[in-house]
Structure formats: C-alpha cells, structure tokens
Please model this.
Amino acid sequence: MELLEQIGQGAKEAESLLRILSEEKKNMVLNRAADALVKHTDRILAANEKDMARGKEKGMKAGLLDRLLLTPERIEGMAEGLRQIADLPDPIGQVIKEHTPPSGLLIRQVRVPLGVIGIIYEARPNVTADAFGLCFKTGNAVVLRGGSDALYSNRAIVEVLRETLAACECPVTAVSLLSDTSRETAAAFMKLNRYIDVLIPRGSAGLIATVVQNSTIPVIETGSGNCHIYVDEAADLNMAAEIVFNAKTQRIGVCNACESLVVHEKVKDAFLPVLAKRLSEKQVELRGDERARASCPMKEACEADWGTEYLGYILSVKVVDSVSEAVSHINRYNTGHSEAIITEDKAHAEQFLREVDAAAVYVNASTRFTDGFEFGFGAEIGISTQKLHARGPMGLEALTSYKYEIYGTGQVRG
Amino acid sequence: MELLEQIGQGAKEAESLLRILSEEKKNMVLNRAADALVKHTDRILAANEKDMARGKEKGMKAGLLDRLLLTPERIEGMAEGLRQIADLPDPIGQVIKEHTPPSGLLIRQVRVPLGVIGIIYEARPNVTADAFGLCFKTGNAVVLRGGSDALYSNRAIVEVLRETLAACECPVTAVSLLSDTSRETAAAFMKLNRYIDVLIPRGSAGLIATVVQNSTIPVIETGSGNCHIYVDEAADLNMAAEIVFNAKTQRIGVCNACESLVVHEKVKDAFLPVLAKRLSEKQVELRGDERARASCPMKEACEADWGTEYLGYILSVKVVDSVSEAVSHINRYNTGHSEAIITEDKAHAEQFLREVDAAAVYVNASTRFTDGFEFGFGAEIGISTQKLHARGPMGLEALTSYKYEIYGTGQVRG
Model:
C-alpha cells in the first residue's frame, strides 16, 4: 500500500510538468519511444516469453495466449501506434469558446489535461504502450494496472518508455505500472482519489462492473455492446442482408458486432430465409421468437437471449409491428453502444435516430463503424457506454478537461 | 427500498418521453409551473411553517432557519427562476459537430439529455424548484433527495410541480422526491445505477465527501472553494486591495470567496499594512506566516490554515519569492475552484494562468465572478470542482450528453 502512495505521488508530481510540455516536445518523446520499442524488441520478447511460458503452464486458452503473445511485427505495430499519435493535432491549449459578459471580463474556455489517468486492463500488453501514448500526448500522467498474466511484458515495455522519458528529460513518473497485481492492491488503487482524476477500465464486462462498484475515483465505463439492427418494413432487403452479415460476422468478439436482429412483421417472410442462407456461410446460429420461427426454421430464443452479448456466431431475432416497438425493445435490452435501422423511409429513420438511447445510432450502415479510427479521431482509448464526460469512441479529446482563463482590468463584484 | 425501486422506474419511464419533448412544450410547462407556485403560495407557506416549527423545536441555528424560511417574495423568486430558465435557449438537439470520414458516412454529434439526474441537497427548499427547472429544460428526469429539515416544504413544492406536469400531459415522474430521508435510504439511493445516470450533491463538504465515497453512480463534485489571490511583485497595489476586499468580504460563506492571500516578498511591506486597514472595516482577522507578520501585525497561521475554507471573516497570508512559488503553494492547498493573480506583468499573468490547476483562473479580477450567471449561462446547477464532464459553473449544457447520429447508404466495414 505504501507503494501505491508512492506511485500516486509520483504521478501527481509529473502532472504539473506534463501540463505545460510543448506539442513539439511531446511529439519528439513519442517518436523516440516508438524507436526505442523497436530497438529493444529482443528484450521485450524475452519478457513476453516468460509470460507465455507461465500462461501455458497455467493452461490458458489459445485465444488468450494469442492476445498475450508479442512478435516483432506486433512490437512494430505498437511503435507505429505511438508515431500515429505523435502525428495527431494536440488538443491541449485549444480555446474552445471565449466571450465577454456585461462585467467586461474576457472569459476564455481552454482545453487542459485531465491530470492523472488510471487504466485497469487485462491481458493485452499492446494496451500498455497505447495508453501511455494517448495520455502523454494529452499531457496526462498515467498509472497502469495490467493483468498479472502480462506482468513481465508490461514491465519491459514501461521500462523502455521510462528510459526514453529520462533521456528526453521528462519525468519518468509520467507512466507507472502497478507491479503488485493482487486484488487487495487493485481495490486500494480504485480509492486513490487524491492522486487519480479518472479511472478507465478496459476489458471484460466483469472487470468493468467491479471497477464501477468499487471505485471512488470517477470512472469512464467502456465496453460491452449488445448492438441491434432493426430491419424496417421500408428496408432495402438486399442492403439489410449485407449489413447484418457484415455487422455479425466481419469480426466476432468485438463490442460493435451485431448481437440481435429486430425485423418488421411485414418483411420477415421475405427477409429471414434470405438472411439465414447468407449467415449460414459462416455457420451463424439464429435464435428467434415465435413469429421469427414461423418465417424461417431456427432455435427458440429465451428471455436471456435478448440481453446477451454473444461475442460469437449467434444472432437473436425479434419480430415487431412498428418502429416504436423496435425502439422500446432496443432501449430495454441494449447497453448504450451502437444500434442501426435499415430503411428507405426518412420519417422512420428520424424517429429511430431520435428515440433510440445509445452512443451511436446508424441509418443504413453497419454497427461495426463505431470506433475512434472510423470516426476520424485517429486513435481510441476505448468506447464509452456512459453518458457523462464522453460517449462513444473516445479519442484524444476525451482525455482532456478545460479551465476558464479570465482576463480582468480590476473588476470587483457589486 | 421498494419505494426507491418504484421511484427509479418512474423516472426511467419519464426519461424516454422527456427526451423528445419540444422546446415550446418544455417552456410552456416551466412558465405554468412558475404561475402555479405563486398561485399556491399559501399552501407552500403552510408546509414551510411546519418545517420551521420543527426546526425551532430542534434548536436549529438562526442561519439555517433563515435558509429554510420561505416567504411570498422567496416563492416569487423561485417562480421567476423557472421563467428565466424557460427563456434560455434549449441545448437539446443542437448539432455539436458533423463530418464525413473516408467511409462516406455522415457522422453528426447531437446534444441529448443525460437521462435521469439525482440531486442530493440540504436544507434550502428553493433548490427543489430550481433543480426541477434546469433538469426539465434539458429533457432530464430528476430524483430529489432534500434534507429532512425541509421535507414538508419540498413535498408541497413537488406536489405543485407534479400537478402542473399532469395538467400539461407530461409524465409526473419527471420530478420525484424521496420522502424517506433516512441515511439507509440515502445510501441505497447512491447505488441506483440502473436508473440514475448522474448524481449531483449540493451542500456541505461533508455531504459531498459522503456521496463521493459511497455512490456507484457517476458523481459531479461541486462545492468547496479554498480560493487564493496572489498579489504579484508587479501588481497595481490599489487594485489588489480593492479586489481582495471584494473577494473576501462582499459575501461571506460562498464558495468563490477568497480564503487565502499570497503576496510577493517585494511588495509585502507596501501592501499588507494598507490591506489590513481596508479589511479592518469589516473586522477581518489576518493569519500570516513569519514574513507576513514581520510586515504587519497579525495572528500566526498554522499549517491547517493553508487548507481551510473559512467561510467567515478570516484570511490567511503567505509570502512567496516568485510566481512559481505562488503556483506551487496554490496547487498544493487549493480545491480546484477559483484563483487570481494581480499583476501588470503579462508574462507573470500567462505563467499563472497556465500553471495553476483550477476551474477558473483570473488575472486582475475578483474570484467572486465564478458563477453561472456571471459567466453568462443564465442559470447554474452548481460549480464543479472536478475535471470530468463539467468544470466550473455548470449551466444547462452540463446537464446534457451527446449521441452520434450516423447516416449511411449501405456501408459495411471491410
């Protein structure tokens, strides 16, 4: 626990120096950190081998082992990520608004760093470099709590980043890693309000729920996506089939994949058999309500299916009689991530856009577009499913706050 | 606890209807609610008399009794507050940004309500109408948990508001009041994540700390202000004396009042005696460090003084040798509210503006200007001292989130 105190203090000290770093300096450090990661590939791979050996010994599943594995190409990818962040415009110092009220004060709203950001994540070591890059570019110190499975890899990456910071005369405590990955320390970390301004959990729904329940630091919830596509009575059914196929199968296991289909009664007979055929190319299992099953043979959906993020080759199917019913169903079961309507009817599209409560609401496009790169932010720290501070894909701006700089000429309040 | 569940569900149901109310309708309801409060003055005053009688019986202090007291004028003030909110522009539906990335999607960021807002506050019954007005204007449902001392008054006000909502065919659960003001229910209320999107505590530092420690709902911290004024070596000393006098004495007991003076070594001898004389008009007690006491007779400040928000006629005085030392002192002891520098030196002003970490940083003006009306927002739900979501005075925009509305023509992800 003393260690936590020390890490918190170190981050806080770095914060005041990072806040005033120039854009040039930050970009220089990011590019040099990228070079250093590549230069120290062997060292990072050696550390990763230890993690991999331990993971195999523990009987970790193939999918998790693959997420843990580093290769020279993956390290080059991490470096390229840092270089891309260096190329993005720096939001810090930007004047968001300015105005002069009757008092004659000039009130300027200026973008500033959040301060110290805590990130809690699971096995993927590439998050380590990525989170550092995004936080550093926005003048924030970052405290990382990665999973115990990736501890050696994360340590090696943070060492290389810190060596670069030291060589560039920047505070090394701009990035810290909790080496103690116990639950007790994680619990204490989540209560470190006096040092940490915001906590961002990245990982499974379970991890995120634990952080929300236990943190006294403000949390940005990211993650789970129970995304729906509603095929309206006025849909172009060919377009609908292609979009559902893409959103369900283009990449399985991602939060913006489609998990549930909602179909209008009037088109279900024409649409469902065609869609089922298309999805059978990827062996997608359909689970439908009674009306869906009457149109096309499929398994029966139970209540739990409507609320499940499968992250796999399964799609639930619900039949409705109107846009309003589709909206009610979606607002009841969704996780506030991404939802789509397929329709040629403008009024239906507008109603859906207005009434569905989610970070991203699409007309005639795949839900798979919800990410920071596709949204043109150039990078992403996660996808927020809450409404406070940031919603949807979070780019650099989501890691900033603002302050008011106010210029007077002796004004006092009457 | 069952009651909480019912209140949460009611608010959630209202949310989906409020989200799509037109600006005209919302303004009509606000103006009619204002009329209804005035019309039912006698009923509200009768309820308030019960609270006042109980307060006197309990031996409540005069200051608290005054905050609890309603009069026809104060009810007219509440009504006028609602009318002013009706006159403000509605931020909901505003397009914040829009762009088209290479995919050809039109991505539009649109302002939407937060959803359901919880407000926890203490004895002042005027907050009840005010919080309803701000939340309703921004399409949010609100659940109020006022202090037990004002329960009869708050109930009467909420009854009048709900009668207006019903008469206007709006969901009455747009505003709810927790009648059970026990600690247990307050604790359960703070964990109502599934119904409440954000919790805003308004009141003492103790109340706010309790909410931050116990809430699993995202909290916007408002409140305490340990505000500093730094009188630089290049200050206009007459201006400095007037500004400090104003910030300290114009209104005692408010969060943007000045609590601590920081003075440059080079001007302390010329400034402190003059200031002490000016502040003696209001019997302000000075508490200084050694160097301050050498310039001007005053009490000795102890370590605790630097971190104390007096909310009274006391001012601590610290002498420093540079802008940097002033900044370090302020960043160590402030609460992130409002800080000022008095100087004619532009470089010193810029350094102070950039390096001081607070919601509002002033050059040559009184810290008393930090509020929603002075900032031109027309209304205020509180002053945020955190960096997430909203910082500084919070007007209507602070009660909103955004969603992305995305228009495609069949795009799928490659």
Observations:
- Chain B touches chain A through 68 residues (CB under 8 Å).
